[in-house]
Amino acid sequence: MFQIASAFSAFFLASAVLGNPAGRLEGPASHQQQKLQDCLAVRGVPTTLNSSSDWSSLIAAFNLRLQYTPTAVTLPTTPQHVSDSVTCAIAAGVKVQPRSGGHSYGSYSLGGKDGSLMVDLQKFNSISLNKSTGIVAVGGGVRLGNLGVGIFQQGQRALPHGTFPGVGIGGHYTHGGFGYSSRRWGLALDTIVAMDVVLADGRYIHATSTSYPDIYYALRGAADSFGIVTTFHLQTQSAPSQVVSFSASFASALKSADTAANIVLKLQTFATSSSYMDRNTTLEVYMNVNGEFSIRGWYFGDRDYFSKTVFSAMLDGMPTPDNSTVQYRTWLDALEDIAEGEPLAEPLIGYNNHQTFYSKSVVTREAEPLTKTALESFFAYVIKKGLSATFPWNTFIALYGGKDSQINKPALADSAAYSHRDSLWVFQNIGSSPDFLPPFAPEIMNFVDGLNTALTSAQPDGDFLAYPNYLDPALTPAEAARLYYGDVTYNRLVKIKKAVDPKAVFWNPQAIGNAIL
Ligand SMILES: Cc1cc2nc3c(=O)[nH]c(=O)nc-3n(C[C@H](O)[C@H](O)[C@H](O)COP(=O)(O)OP(=O)(O)OC[C@H]3O[C@@H](n4cnc5c(N)ncnc54)[C@H](O)[C@@H]3O)c2cc1C
Ligand SMILES: *[C@@H]1O[C@H](CO)[C@@H](O)[C@H](O)[C@H]1NC(C)=O
Ligand SMILES: *[C@@H]1O[C@H](CO)[C@@H](O)[C@H](O)[C@H]1NC(C)=O
Ligand SMILES: *[C@@H]1O[C@H](CO)[C@@H](O)[C@H](O)[C@H]1NC(C)=O
Ligand SMILES: *[C@@H]1O[C@H](CO)[C@@H](O)[C@H](O)[C@H]1NC(C)=O
C-alpha cells in the first residue's frame, strides 16, 4: 500500500479537551436565547444548552483554530424536530446551520460565528440499500467511512467520495465530494437522485430533478444556504472486487524546482492526451514537510496491463522513481489505505478528532493547463520555504479533469450549483500547528498563502478558482462567491435564496446572498 503516513495523519490522533467557556450573551441576546429555548422545549425538541456537562465536547470544532459558541444545539431524531428547530430559530431571530460530520474548515456547522443554532444530525445515521434499484437512503449525519462499509456490507456496493472516514455526508455530498473513484463515477454529489430536506419555512419536502428542481439544483453545491438534508438518496455502483493501487516516489527529485516541475508537467501531458488515459485511472500528487513527493492513485482494471502499459506510459520521460508499487487491493482495503490512518468504522456518537489548521485550494482549468513557469515557481517555494518549515504542511494535487473524466461531462455543466465542470487539477495546501492543537501561529497561514500565490502569480491568465469543500474562511463573501461558484451560478442561487429563504435563516459568513456579484 502506498505511504500516507505523514505529519498530517498524526494530527488525527490528537484529541483535545476544550476549556473554552461559552460566550456570554447579555441583554437582547439572552432574551433571544430564552425565547429559543422555550419554543424548543414546548415542541419537545431534544436540546443541549451551555449548562449541560457535555456542552464543551458537543460544540468542539474539528478545526480548533476556529471555535464558535452556538446559542443552543438541537439533537433531532425526527424530521419534525428538524423543522421545529428551524421555526423556533426564526421566531427567536437566530441563524441556523446543521452539522453532519463537523469537518467544515471554517467551522461553519457551528454557525461560523457565535450565537447561532446548531442542528446536530448525529441521530440521522441510518444506511439502507434498496438492492433492486441500487439506491441507498442515507441519514444526513452519516460519516463517509461508515457509508463505504455499510453499502459494501449490504450489497457489495460503492460510491465515489472523499478519503477521510470522519467527514460527514452532509457537507461533503453537497459541496462537491472528490475521491479516488470520481474520475470514473463522478463527484459525490453527482450520485444524489433525491433529498429529503427541511426548508427555511419549516416545510419538509422530497427534492428531485423534477420535484422542486430549483431546490435540487441549489442543494447540490450550496446546501448550507438552502436547507437541512435529513436523508440523501444516492445511486450506488457495483463495488469492484479489487482495484489496482499504485504509487511512485520522487522524493529525491524535490531538490530541483526544474526537475520537480517537469515531473508534474509530464504527468499533465499524460493525463490530458495519452491514449492510455481514461476514466479508470485516478491520479494525485502528494507532498509534505518531510520531503515526500509522490504520484499515487488507483486503476480500475487488470494489474499487469496497468503495470506494463498505463503506468510505464505515465512515467515515461520522468526520472527513475526512488521506488514504486503496483498492487491489487480489495475494495475495503483500498478505502482504508487512503483513510489517513483512521479506521473506516467511526463511532456514531462521541466522535472526538480535532486538528488546528488553515487550508487553501487552487482549482485549475482544462483550458489553461499549468505552465512550466507556474510549476517551477511553486516548487521553488516548496524547496526554499517548505522543506525547512517548523510546522507540518502538505499539498495534495488531485486530477479532476483529463481524458474521459466523469466529473467534467458536458451534460453536467449547469445541472447543479457545483459549477466547476472544467477543472483540471485541484491543489489543496494545508498548514497545521506543530502539535495539531491551538495556538496557531500567523506564519503558518502566511506559508499556506505563499504556496497558493507562488503558483497563481506565475500564471496570471490561469483563471484559477477554489473548491467549495476546501472552504477558505479567509475569503470575503464576494471572493468566495466568485471562486466557488462564478457569477452565473451565484446569481441564480441568489434568486433561489430570495424565494425560499428571504430572511437568510440559513447563514454563515460566506452564505449565498452575503455578496453581490
Ligand atoms: C481530514 C479531511 C480530509 C478531507 N478529504 C476530502 C477529500 O478527500 N475529498 C473532498 O472532496 N473533500 C475532503 N475534505 C473536505 C470535506 O469534504 C469538507 O470539509 C466537508 O464539507 C465536510 O463535511 P461535514 O459534513 O463533515 O462538515 P460540516 O461541518 O458538518 O458541514 C459543512 C457545511 O455543510 C453544511 N451541512 C452539513 N450537513 C448538512 C446537511 N445535512 N444539509 C445541509 N447542509 C449541511 C454545514 O452547515 C456546513 O456549512 C476533507 C476534510 C478533512 C477535514
Ligand atoms: C450560558 O449562557 C448564558 C446566557 O447567555 C450565560 O449567562 C452563562 O454565563 C453561560 N454559562 C456558562 C457556563 O458559560
Ligand atoms: C426498492 O425500490 C423499488 C422501486 O422504487 C420499490 O418498488 C421497492 O419497494 C423498493 N424495495 C424496498 C425493499 O424498499
Ligand atoms: C520510497 O522512497 C521514499 C523516499 O524517496 C521513502 O521515504 C519511502 O520510505 C520508500 N518506500 C518504500 C516502500 O521503500
Ligand atoms: C474501464 O474499466 C472497465 C472494467 O473495469 C472496462 O469495462 C472499461 O472498458 C474501461 N474503460 C472505460 C473507458 O470505461
TrEMBL record:
Domain FAD-binding PCMH-type: 66-239
Cleavable signal peptide: 1-19
Classification via SUPFAM superfamilies: FAD-binding/transporter-associated domain-like
Domain of life: Eukaryota
Gene Ontology MF, one: oxidoreductase activity
Keyword Magnesium: no
Coiled-coil ranges from the UniProt annotation: none
Flavoprotein is among the record's keywords: yes
Keywords in alphabetical order: FAD, Flavoprotein, Oxidoreductase, Signal
Family statement drawn from the similarity comment of this UniProt entry: Belongs to the oxygen-dependent FAD-linked oxidoreductase family.
Protein name: Glucooligosaccharide oxidase
Organism (species): Melanomma pulvis-pyrius CBS 109.77
